[in-house]
Amino acid sequence: MFRYIRTITICFFDILCAYFGWMIPFSRHPERYPLQYRYAKVRKLTLKVTKYMHVDIIAKNPEILKTPRTYVFIGNHTSMYDALIMLCLSEYPVSFVGKHEIRHMPFFGRIMKAIDAVFIERDNLKKEVAVLREVKLALKEKKMSWVIFPEGTRNKNPEGPLLPFKAGSFRMAFDTDTPIVPIAIYGAHRPLNTKYRLKRFPIHVSFLDTITPDQFKQQNTVTIANHVQNIIQDEVKRLQVLDGHLLMMKTDKKKR
After folding, report:
1. Given strand 145-148, what is the order of strands in its sheet?
2. Which residue ranges form the domains of the chain, and what is each CATH number?
3. pLDDT for 191-216, tens place per residue?
């Protein structure tokens, strides 16, 4: 609990000024401000909060984020921090496809709206189609990359298997010939959970081999969804082992 109090205390004025200074205007009228400007503001605040939350992001192959090329990033999902990680790592704008409920979350919802995130209502097919059409248009115009968590909801058991990937999450990449980059994330469930008492919170992120349109066009969305889920699951297992060794090394150092 102390780390939350400490972070809020240190970042209080930054968060307060950001909320009234740009979060509200950006989220209400994003079209009035350039995307790069909005994204830079969101990323700067995210980096500061992450720093004072004592989060260490350990990234494998982050070089893919160093170019302005457009991708569809597909990742596993255990926490809201999954999105914050991508904001921290990518200097170029990325946005997100999320559940409708996120829109109404304090602060986080406004941040997502400020960077053009879209929200799907699972029980409203008409609106879901309209939202996906909006993302497809952005991908065709190569405005930015998009991050999708195809499990559809947060996996509450980060140590267990991934939830089934929804094949429809891959349709946007198929329809716009956009390369798919699988992402494996482990450790994002800890910073916002008070039961984890660590001085620092390692979060492992692996950017796996890009799947080009030439590769996935030979398959259907169900086949590619199963394939991507399997390779992410294998990498998450590897990251779990790596994370265990890292925490054990830190424990051994404390005992010396």
Report:
1. 55-60, 201-207, 180-186, 72-75, 145-148, 94-99, 118-120
2. 2-255 (3.40.1130.10)
3. 888 788 788 899 999 999 999 999 98
